[in-house]
Structure formats: C-alpha cells, structure tokens
Amino acid sequence: MKKILVFLSVVCLSLTASAQDKKDTPDVKVPIETLKTYVGKYEMAPGAIIDVTTDANRIFVQMTGQSKFEIFPSSMTEFYLKVVEAKVIFRADDKDNIIGLTLQQNGQDNPGKKIE
Description:
Structural class: alpha+beta
Largest sheet: 8 strands, antiparallel, barrel
C-alpha cells in the first residue's frame, strides 16, 4: 500500500508538469451521456480518491488535495491527460455499469474502485 501512495504522490506532483504534445492522438467524440456514466469517486488507496466530473461536453479528474485537470478521449473508455504522460481507463461490469478506473503511468497500472 505504501508503494501505491508513493506512486500516487508522484502522479499528483507530476500533474504540474508542462503539457505533452498529443497531435498524434485521434480526435474521438464521446457522447455526454457516456461521459456522465464515468462521473463519481474512485478510491485508489485509503484516503486517495480521484473525483471524476463533467462540465458541458468535457470530463475532468481531480485527485484528493490536487487541482482538477481535463482528460481527453482516445477511445470511448480511454482518456489521456495533456499535463502529464498518463492514461485513465474506465472499467465496466458485464452489465456496462462503470465499476472502476485504471490510472496508467510510467508503465504501471493502478486500479481504483468506484465508490460513489
């Protein structure tokens, strides 16, 4: 668990890095109805929550105690950040209910469970 918290701290600190060039990323349009299914709180570790929100046709992530950042779709379930080299992948159960997300960064997959 300490390893996850250290990783999440590094992720949070690196969110202040300069924007990454994403010109090679396809422009994917995700319907607002789909984006709304991702809204909620995801527990990455005890006390470390990623809050996912929408505003109009945009979607954002915010780690506990950190700034909010927009994420951009590369597919219907995969999103990337422009401020750091990282991906957020939403996971669904067999009934298409969103049950979690995975934060991918530095070759590591860090799953989070949807708690709200």
